[in-house]
């Protein structure tokens, strides 16, 4: 699990049927100070995150768990919108 920042939305007209109806978000991973780490990537959104928000993500096989009816082929899923980071 890790932190990220939403950069935008990805729109795909042709995709795997298990991704139908899911919002795809462009995210960059960040450290606890909000500094970007690595290249942007696409994540499935399970909660309705918007541009510029700090989010909490999970990766790997667990990324499909929030979706009960179908398990999409995803390596990253947004689980929460972060209100505040205390350190």
Overview of the structural elements:
With 87 residues, this protein is mostly beta strands. It has a single domain (2-81), classed as OB fold (Dihydrolipoamide Acetyltransferase, E2P). The protein is built from no helices and five strands. It has strands spanning 2-10, 23-30, 41-45, 54-59, 76-81. A five-stranded mixed barrel has the order 1-2-3-5-4.
Could you give the topology of this structure?
Blueprint: E1 2-10, E2 23-30, E3 41-45, E4 54-59, E5 76-81
Parallel strand pairs: 3-5
Antiparallel strand pairs: 1-2, 1-4, 2-3, 4-5
What is this structure, in a nutshell?
With 87 residues, the chain is an all-beta fold. Helices cover 0% and strands 39% of the residues. The chain has a five-stranded mixed β-barrel.
Quick tags:
globular, 5-stranded mixed barrel, 87 residues
End-to-end separation in angstroms reads 18 Å
Strand order of the largest sheet: 1-2-3-5-4
Which range does the strand content fall in?
35-45%
Q: From the alpha carbons, calculate the radius of gyration and give it in angstroms.
A: 13 Å
Q: What is the CATH architecture term?
A: Beta Barrel
Q: Would you list the SSEs in sequence order as H and E?
A: EEEEE
Share of helical residues = under 10%
Number of strands: 5
How many alpha or pi helices? Answer: 0
């Amino acid at each position: 699990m890790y932190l990220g920042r939403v950069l935008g939305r990805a729109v795909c007209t042709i995709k795997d049927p298990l991704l139908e109806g899911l919002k795809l978000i462009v995210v960059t991973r960040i450290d606890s100070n909000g500094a970007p780490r690595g290249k942007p990537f696409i994540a499935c959104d399970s909660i309705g995150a918007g541009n510029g928000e700090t989010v909490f993500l999970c990766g790997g096989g667990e990324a499909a768990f929030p979706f009960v009816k179908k398990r999409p082929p995803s390596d990253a899923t947004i689980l929460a919108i972060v209100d505040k980071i205390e350190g």
